[in-house]
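Open question from group meeting: does this chain pack into something compact, or does most of it stay loose? Before anyone orders reagents, we agreed to write out a predicted structure and look at it together. Recording both the input and the output here so the notebook holds the full record.
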Amino acid sequence: MAIETAQIMLIGFILGLIAHFLKPDENRMNLLFSILIGIIGALLGKFTGVVMGIYHPEETAAYFGAIAGAAIMLAILSFINTGSITHQR
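Structure tokens returned:
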């Protein structure tokens, strides 16, 4: 359980880094905040899938849930910060 949680947090960490560096000029979030949101999203994504009965915690699908959760959290936060997904000026 602890190793799986650490792996999920690593996924969130990596996605937070990627999200931060994909839009460095337009991103108002600092690096640490992007990483934290990625980790929280990954944990929530995995937890939500397990609670809904979509997969069991030890299944590989849980990692896909974590990736989806982190991506959704980072996209929502980007949308809130910029007012749009594409951020047209």
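Observations to bring back to the group:
The chain has one domain: 2-82.
Residues 2-82 form one domain.
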